[in-house]
Amino acid sequence: MPSHIGIVACSAEGASLCYQTICVEGAALCGPHNHPEISMHTHPLAAYMERIYRGDWEGVAGLMLSSSEKLKACGADFLVSPDNTIHQAFRVVEARSPLPWLHIAEVVAGQAVQCGFHRLGLTGTRWLVESAVYAEKLAARGLEFLRPSPEEREKINCIIMDELVYGVFRPESVAVFQRIIGRMKDEGCDAVVLGCTEIPLILNDGNSPLPVLDSTRLLARAALRRAVSSDDAKG
Question: Would you call 74 exposed, middle or buried from its count of C-beta atoms within 10 A (0-12, 13-18, 19+)?
Fold first, then answer.
């Protein structure tokens, strides 16, 4: 049997897309209608946001670890979190976690190298783009990156927090992302990181000025590969 995947969820739309991707794309690796066992746990997004707004990353880590313990009790073998922002607490979480993790930014950086990209535009919540979550992982792979301007960060953050996490998708918001990514292209970026797991719900290779690195689906696919490779190792 493949390994049991545990999803530490935060926001519903991103977690749902990650879960759906594992289930749908699992068939290619596991056979028709088949996929690894999956368990998911989430605290209310409000609990996370209360801590994020006051910069309490230890508190964020506590929520993630609480989910980790519950998922271990469900039988999960390893964990993923389809939420980029809360990876700011990852160092604390990794040190105390009862199970191993895949890091979303490491997965994205690895894919960027594999695709031959060199300079990436970074999109996501303002907490994410102002953090070291991607800066460290991209630099470790020799990749350059460009953050949105302060004004662009606020626009993106409002779209994510006021629309996307609620399942609201507006054409005018797509246009905002297209303008920002177009500006990044003009400044030498050859791909863009969709560094919020809801952004892929409105942006893709078909409507983005730059090739996209879809953090949600890339993480789901990495989890699938790990689960199935663990199965091979057991055999």
Answer: middle
Domain 104-214 belongs to what architecture? 3-Layer(aba) Sandwich (3.40)
Q: Are 143 and 109 in contact (CB under 8 A)?
A: yes
Rounded (10°) CA dihedral 208, 153, 135, 112 = -10
Q: Tokens 């028709």 — which residue?
A: 32
Q: How far apart are CA 36 and CA 26, in angstroms?
A: 7
Q: Are 107 and 90 in contact (CB under 8 A)?
A: no
CB 41 within 8 A of CB 9: yes
Distances (CA, A) of 16 to 138, 142, 155: 26, 32, 24
SS3 state of residue 193: strand
Q: Please name the residue that has the structure tokens 């400044």.
A: 187
Q: Which part of the chain has CATH 3.40.50.1860?
A: 5-103+217-234, 104-214
Yes or no: domain 5-103+217-234 corresponds to CATH 3.30.1250.10: no
Q: What percent of the chain is helix, strand and coil (3-state, nearest 5)? A: 60, 10, 30
Summarize pLDDT for 103-145 with one digit per residue, the tens.
999 999 999 999 999 999 999 999 999 999 999 999 999 999 9
Amino acid 57 reads W
pTM for the structure as a whole: 0.95
